[in-house]
C-alpha cells in the first residue's frame, strides 16, 4: 500500500510539466465552453491546488505505518579485569507498541485532510473559471469597441470628404473641414486605444488559462449571449458549493485530530528483551517499558484540537450564511443588469441610431452643418459605449451568479 502511495506522488509530480505543455498548446478558437474547460483543468491556481491533494496522499502514506517509533537495538561490550580476565557483552532489543488505536486515528486525520483538500481544489476551480469567463467577456467587449471605432472612422472619413467637396463649391467654411479632419483623428485614436485594450484583456485571459501568450488567442462568442446565466437564474435550487463542503470537511478533520490527541495522552509502551554475559554467566531478561506522564500529561494538544474544532464549526456556519447572501445578491444584481440592458436596447439605442442616420442624411443634403452632425454623432457614440458597458455589467453579474451558485456547466 505504501509503495502505491509513493508511486502516486511521483507520477503526480512528473505529470505537472505535461499539464503545463498541454495548457500552452491550446489551439483553435476559444468559445465559452472551451474557456470553462481550460480554466477548470489548466488554470495556475488549480494546478497548484492539485499538488496539495498529493501532499495529503503522502501524509496518509506516513500515517499508515504500524508505529511512528522504530525498534531499538542496544549493543555494549567491554573487558572485565580481575582475578580472571573476560569480555562482558550486553544486547537489548526494544519494540514499541502504540495504545489507543493511534494508527487508525492518524489515518483518519490524514484521510479527512485529503477530503478537505479535494473540496478546496474544487473551490479554487470555481473561482478560476469565474476569473477566466470574466476575462473572456472583456475580450468580447474590447473587440466590439474596436468594431465601433472602425465604423466611426469610416463615417468620419466620408464626412471629411463631403466637407472638402462643399468647401470647394463654397457651401462650407474652412473650420468645417477642420472639424471633419479632427473627427477622423479622434476616430483613429479611438481605434489605437481599442487595440491596446484588446491586447490587455487578451493577456488577462491568457494568464487565467495558464497560457504563455495571448497574442494569438481567437475568441468566438457574443457579448449579448447570456443563455448559461439565464439557465442558472431559473434553477430552483443551488448546488452545494465546494467551499462549504471544505469547511465541513475541516470540522471532520478537527474531530479526528481531537481523537488522535486523546489517544496520544496514553503512556508509551515498549516490549524489551535483553541478553547479558558477565564473566561466565549468561543472563536473559524480558520486560516492558512504560512512560509515566506525570510531569507532562499532554493537555495542550487536546485543548488546541478542541479550539480548532470550535473555530471550524463557526467557519462552516459563517460560510453557509455568506453563500446564501451571495446567491441572493447575485440574483438581484443580475436581474437589475439585464433590465438595464433591455431598457437601453429598447429605448435608447434604437432612437439614437435613428437620429444618427437622419442627421447624416441631412448633412449630405446640406440641411445641417457639420457641428450639429458631430453633436448628434457624439451622443450616438456615447449611447453605444454605454450599451457596451451595460452588456459587460450584465455578463459580470452573470459570472457572479454562476460562481455564487457553484455551477459552471454549459450542457
Write the layout of secondary structure elements.
Layout: H1 2-24, H2 32-42, H3 44-63, E1 72-80, E2 86-97, H4 102-168, H5 174-209, H6 227-234, H7 242-263, E3 269-278, E4 281-290, H8 299-364, H9 370-405
Antiparallel strand pairs: 1-2, 2-3, 3-4
Helix pairs in contact: 1-3, 2-3, 2-4, 3-4, 4-5, 4-7, 4-9, 6-9, 7-8, 8-9
Keywords:
single chain; 411 residues; alpha+beta; Outer membrane efflux proteins (OEP); 4-stranded antiparallel beta sheet; 9 helices; 4 strands; 70% helix
What does this structure look like?
The protein has 9 helices and 4 strands. It is α+β, with helices and mostly antiparallel strands and 411 residues long. It has one domain (2-405): Outer membrane efflux proteins (OEP). It has a 4-stranded antiparallel beta sheet with strand order 1-2-3-4, with no helix packed on it. α7 packs antiparallel against α8 (299-364). The longest helix has 67 residues, at 102-168.
Whole-number mean pLDDT: 83
Can you count the helices?
Answer: 9
Q: How many E-type strands?
A: 4
Question: Which regions have little confidence, pLDDT < 50, spanning 5+ residues?
Answer: 1-25
CATH H level, superfamily name: Outer membrane efflux proteins (OEP)
Question: Which architecture would the CATH scheme give at its second level?
Answer: Up-down Bundle
The main β sheet shows up as: 4 strands, antiparallel
Distance between the termini: 39 Å
How many structural domains in the coordinates? 1
Amino acid at each position: 500500500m505504501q509503495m502505491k502511495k509513493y508511486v502516486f506522488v511521483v507520477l503526480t509530480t512528473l505529470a505537472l510539466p505535461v499539464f503545463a505543455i498541454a495548457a500552452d498548446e491550446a489551439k483553435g478558437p476559444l468559445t465559452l465552453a472551451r474557456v470553462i474547460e481550460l480554466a477548470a483543468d489548466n488554470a495556475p491556481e488549480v494546478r497548484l491546488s492539485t499538488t496539495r491533494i498529493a501532499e495529503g496522499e503522502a501524509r496518509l502514506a506516513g500515517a499508515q505505518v504500524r508505529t511512528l517509533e522504530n525498534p531499538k537495538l542496544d549493543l555494549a561490550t567491554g573487558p572485565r579485569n580481575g582475578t580472571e580476565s573476560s569480555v562482558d557483552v550486553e544486547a537489548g532489543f526494544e519494540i514499541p507498541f502504540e495504545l489507543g488505536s493511534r494508527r487508525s486515528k492518524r489515518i483518519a486525520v490524514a484521510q479527512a485532510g485529503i477530503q478537505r483538500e479535494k473540496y478546496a481544489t474544487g473551490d479554487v476551480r470555481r473561482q478560476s473559471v469565474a476569473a477566466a469567463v470574466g476575462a473572456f467577456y472583456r475580450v468580447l467587449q474590447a473587440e466590439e469597441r474596436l468594431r465601433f471605432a472602425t465604423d466611426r472612422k469610416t463615417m468620419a472619413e466620408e464626412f471629411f470628404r463631403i466637407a472638402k467637396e462643399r468647401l470647394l463649391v463654397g457651401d462650407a467654411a474652412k473650420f468645417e473641414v477642420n472639424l471633419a479632419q479632427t473627427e477622423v483623428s479622434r476616430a483613429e485614436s479611438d481605434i489605437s486605444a481599442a487595440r491596446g485594450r484588446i491586447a490587455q484583456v487578451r493577456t488577462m485571459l491568457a494568464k487565467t488559462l495558464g497560457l504563455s501568450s495571448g497574442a494569438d488567442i481567437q475568441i468566438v462568442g457574443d457579448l449579448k449571449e447570456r443563455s448559461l446565466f439565464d439557465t442558472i437564474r431559473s434553477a430552483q435550487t443551488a448546488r452545494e458549493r465546494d467551499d462549504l463542503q471544505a469547511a465541513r470537511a475541516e470540522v471532520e478533520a478537527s474531530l479526528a485530530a481531537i481523537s488522535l490527541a486523546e489517544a496520544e495522552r496514553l503512556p508509551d509502551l515498549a516490549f524489551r528483551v535483553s541478553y547479558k554475559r558477565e564473566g561466565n554467566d549468561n543472563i536473559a531478561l524480558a520486560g516492558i517499558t512504560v512512560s509515566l506522564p506525570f510531569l507532562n500529561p499532554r493537555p495542550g494538544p487536546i485543548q488546541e484540537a478542541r479550539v480548532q474544532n470550535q473555530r471550524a464549526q463557526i467557519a462552516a456556519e459563517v460560510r453557509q450564511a455568506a453563500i446564501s447572501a451571495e446567491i441572493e445578491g447575485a440574483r438581484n444584481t443580475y436581474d437589475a443588469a439585464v433590465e438595464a440592458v433591455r431598457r437601453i436596447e429598447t429605448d435608447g439605442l434604437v432612437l439614437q441610431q435613428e437620429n444618427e442616420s437622419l442627421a447624416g442624411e441631412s448633412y449630405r443634403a446640406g440641411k445641417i452643418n457639420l457641428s450639429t452632425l458631430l453633436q448628434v454623432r457624439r451622443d450616438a457614440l456615447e449611447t453605444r459605449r454605454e450599451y457596451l458597458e451595460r452588456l459587460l455589467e450584465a455578463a459580470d453579474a452573470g459570472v457572479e451568479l454562476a460562481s455564487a451558485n457553484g455551477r459552471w456547466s454549459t450542457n
